[in-house]
Amino acid sequence: MPIGQRISGSDHHRASGRPIAFVTVALVVQKFGGTSVANAERIREVADHVRRGHARGDQIVLVISAMGKETDELLALAAAVSDTRPGRELDMLITAGERKACALVCMALHDLGVPADSFTGSQAGFITDDNHSNAKILEIAPARVQRALDAGRVPVVAGSQGVSADRDVTFLGRGGSDTTAVALAQTLRADACELYTDVSGVYTTDPRVCADARKLPSISFDELLEMTAVGCPKPAMRSVEVAQNYGVRLHIRSAFTWEQGTWVVKEEPAMEQPIIRSVTPDASETKITVTGVADRPGVAAELFRKLADAGVNVDMIVQNASERGITDISFTVPDSDADTASEITWSVADDIGATGVAADRDIARVSLVGAGMKSNPGVAATMFETLSQHQINIEMISTSPIRISCVIRQEHADAATQALHEAFGLAG
Amino acid sequence: MPIGQRISGSDHHRASGRPIAFVTVALVVQKFGGTSVANAERIREVADHVRRGHARGDQIVLVISAMGKETDELLALAAAVSDTRPGRELDMLITAGERKACALVCMALHDLGVPADSFTGSQAGFITDDNHSNAKILEIAPARVQRALDAGRVPVVAGSQGVSADRDVTFLGRGGSDTTAVALAQTLRADACELYTDVSGVYTTDPRVCADARKLPSISFDELLEMTAVGCPKPAMRSVEVAQNYGVRLHIRSAFTWEQGTWVVKEEPAMEQPIIRSVTPDASETKITVTGVADRPGVAAELFRKLADAGVNVDMIVQNASERGITDISFTVPDSDADTASEITWSVADDIGATGVAADRDIARVSLVGAGMKSNPGVAATMFETLSQHQINIEMISTSPIRISCVIRQEHADAATQALHEAFGLAG
Prior knowledge:
Two copies of one chain form a homodimer.
Chain A: H1 9-17, E1 27-34, H2 40-55, E2 59-67, H3 70-81, H4 87-111, E3 116-119, E4 126-128, E5 137-140, H5 143-150, E6 154-158, E7 161-163, E8 169-171, H6 176-187, E9 192-197, E10 218-220, H7 221-226, H8 237-246, E11 250-254, E12 262-265, E13 278-282, E14 285-294, H9 299-309, E15 317-319, E16 326-334, H10 338-349, E17 356-360, E18 363-369, H11 378-389, E19 396-400, E20 403-409, H12 413-423
Parallel strand pairs in A: 1-2, 1-9, 2-6, 3-6, 9-11, 10-12
Antiparallel strand pairs in A: 4-5, 7-8, 11-12, 13-18, 14-16, 14-17, 15-16, 18-20, 19-20
Helix pairs in contact in A: 2-4, 3-4, 6-8, 9-10, 11-12
């Protein structure tokens, strides 16, 4: 599609219905950050990639987040200076990282003869609430970005930031630049939003575990949201939800090889739909088991409300069948939340009549993800059979319409992943 | 003076007429930067100093510039990324340094229970022209700063920055934070503007050269502007001129010992006025001599216009008496400009009929500075006698109403300084 020829909403949907590979885009939002812009050389490489697209006639809007580990470094500096670290000041501090990366990318573009202008979140028109360090976007008024685009320039927007009604600087939180990029793509009605990372796309499983892992040309939003694979690109959940709600087409790809990555699109009834999309191992969680819990209403509620109030991120929850009026409850939390979760669980143990609390870090979760699963009841059975054939014991099971997860011993994670990748014919 | 009890303009003048040591201030602008806020420990020390003033009931406004050598680091990063380095983007990059330091100081204040809010140049109301990397302040609308003050809070303003009419971020240039502080002090009608540095004030000479060098409790603006001593605090020229024009009282003091420093004030007729205030050695310049120059109008103009166009910072200029229609011109430039100055001088040598150009780095300039000099013609004579008594040859002489500078061999700089410091009775 020639540059400048914008497409209407309905065309837009037809466009995303086409075979992805053949869609050429006129207006694309590209997000770079972290390792992709970690040093001067990387920044120049990113600028050269943008130059190529600009030369092809694409209209490109960049969203840049902080260089390398700069956000961590700024947080460490704050911790060294202050115990209180008020949110307003923390946001003023952290957003300096994006601002810096943004200006550097702009300079590199100028060197290559690509006209570009940097914009802070405020200049780009990102109005947010005043919930510092985790602000929500209320409105985007991208007049300056649009003017730059119309003038044939490349707007370079500082990610994860905006300005509150009181005109204070706000930070959208870690990973907020993905949200900035998706929200901007939606507001500008871009044809695609490209999230550049250090992996080349979404694979059928972790390539480090299975040599024959295959890169997926596309997956659905639901599938991406179910994925928790190590080594699998994880755009910030918020950004994926925004993209899904507004039908923004995401392209997850590499800022190092520049090859085509994986498109994340609305599930199309027409789309050829394999039963299983991927096998995703995850060894980053701890299993907590509460034994001898009184089997009466409100018990689970009391426990998980307390955990939620403490900000503990509970993933799987399984309650075993009740015996003699008592039962066991098991759940998983990120290893980093394990200690907090244990303490809280102990603190309510008496109230809920629990006789014991056990935390087990040596577990792994292996998940099958695939939208096709919904209409294929046999999948769970095949998964359990495959694991048992390999003498791998299943300790917990939880399912969603498009995911089945089994908790097993961590030492069996690779074997289970390889066995399932093969059993469901995912190899290249 | 009790907090909040603001003083009128006329009182203000009387106030600055009082013996400095007894003036207690109600509203003071304090500027910190560089080594004073180089790391977390220094930032906490600065915050504790501010806490003490705030506890005394002073109203304090802080102006903060970048930590340690951060501005240099950002410029190095820009150079590594880009050859063009457009001013708009350079300003976006560099101002991130002040922003960062500003937020950190605020956090440290919160830890000590001092309510404080950081403000970018834009938030503090600094409107500038769009002359990027060297912007001039057009107007200051410090409504937010005033509101914070009125609420008993400490406004912490990012130095050396503002926003242009196009709402682009602008940088006032190196040393611009001094200008931010002085301009803000004038706008807020502050009782004083304290510029904190790593030296404890202005001395009668370089303490490293003369053990008995004495710290001056106060000097006049004219005297400060004439000072070029190594190890003598050098507030940005612009800021001193602004302070002089608007009668802002400057206090140059140490952010390490916190002792009383040196006040820079309007020359008060009443003020006891020693003839000589200080002896200032300076070994940082190169002497360039152009020989056999045609002694006709326009020759000097042609040479120094070319040097000015090249941004060469010429200091002393001496033209010797003419002989047979030809003459010699000597001038001094910073060692860093010496090569450029030589090239340019050679390039115009033919036009001006010069027969030779010689650059000499092994010189030093020793200057006497003192407002009292104006009415004491004997000073020059005493200076020349003192130097000759020590067999120190004088190669160039230049004078201003309140300064006499002699260029001598660099190896004699210390001896000359010690001899003059003694001859004019400056020792403590």
